[in-house]
Amino acid sequence: MTGRLVAGVDCSTQATKVIVVDPDDGRIVATGRAPHTVTGTDGARETDPREWWTALRTALAETGRAADIAALSVAGQQHGLVVLDGASEPVRDAILWNDTRSAPEAERLTATLGADRWAERTGLRPVASFTVSKWAWLRAHEPESVAAARAVRLPHDYLTERLTGRATTDRGDASGTGWWSSADEAYAADILGLAEVDLDARLLPSVVGPAEAAGSVAAGAAAELGLVPGAIVGPGTGDNMAAALSMDLAVGQPVLSLGTSGTVYAVSEGRATDPTGVVAGFADASGRFLPLACTLNCTLAVDRTAEWLGLGRDDVSPAESVVVLPWLDGERTPDLPGASGTIVGLRHSTTPQQILMATYEGAVASLLEALAAVEASSGGSGEPLVLIGGGARGATWREVVRRLSGRPLLIPTAEELVAIGAAVQATAILRGEAPSTVARRWGTLAGQRLEPVTRDDHRVALIAGVRNAIEAEPAFSGARG
Known about the structure:
- The chain is an alpha/beta fold.
- The chain has a domain at 5-247: ATPase, nucleotide binding domain (Nucleotidyltransferase, domain 5), CATH 3.30.420.
- Strand 10 and strand 11 (186-187) form a beta hairpin.
- The model is unreliable at 476-481 (pLDDT under 50).
């Protein structure tokens, strides 16, 4: 049986997960998981990238099937900045996607070229999440780290390179850096040459195609991880691209992902160029595009509120007059990286259960507003709305999305879609198949359909009114003045 299975790796913000899969039917035969440490305060979010490698080793060992893996691929959290020295050791901890310290640098980068030019060149307008902004922050605040840099990587690149010994990335994850041009399908020399960036392209990994292997497992990595030397390593990709790949989405089919952050996206045949920055014009892992909008605060913000109130996640009641904007880590959509959480409409009669329900609603309302922009970019408004991520398993999340959207929902039965997408990629490379053929055979998109309910226009309008007022008062929101 040695060598007949494939593996998908999901290196997320909080943990590394590994699934071992039968490539014939997509049956998951073993799983493993190991956590990461995230540190930082006042907008900082960092992890030592060596923890990702240790977590991969632990998760693979937990599966008990590492020696049976013929091919694997790594999907990772997007945008993180990994800086390595000449010995391929981290110069400093990785700066994660949800680190908001680079918001001023993002503003300066936008002003340098103009939002329209950024969108046309890269499909993005700089915000604090993107790698180019983090690199500009590092240049401004830690010039010694920049001077020591001999390689710049994304999280999935770092793990893939340690597996293979080759420096590679893919177009999907590269499209989230801010220095890769979705127009040219290449690194953007004009962006790399900006004074705020000044990054030598030779420090960046080569970009492999969707059907191209990154390499094979090197002997040293195989000995560390229990893998077979020479096992195929797929190109890898970003987490959202992997989830989309796992489901073989039709063009325009909308997806709403409820995780630590909330994301909405749809596969598109054409690239998105939104100078407002609401929609990021990413590439996907199939050769097409993945216009996407993201909010920083989703399940983690709701769970934190429930913890403060001493409630279970589903211990809620109608919010009545209460509106909550749960921007506990600042916000990306809208672009208010310095914002803080807001509660309005409190009464003597207000209960903790009402506040918790209003927190769910505030998170969902932002996502649905972003969804409208994504659907306009992708040219689709398909139904039903595919609901994925950890929150999709929660009864309250489902009902709030259904009530505020007024749309039918499809909740795939399959879990760990990011890891499944990586396994689809590994299988496609191993067997020379199209990823869509693999995903269709595995039936990942099959699931439960929930019919629509009447849209709660009153709550939608109330939340929008409060949000508009807060956005107009940056001092009150905690945004930069």
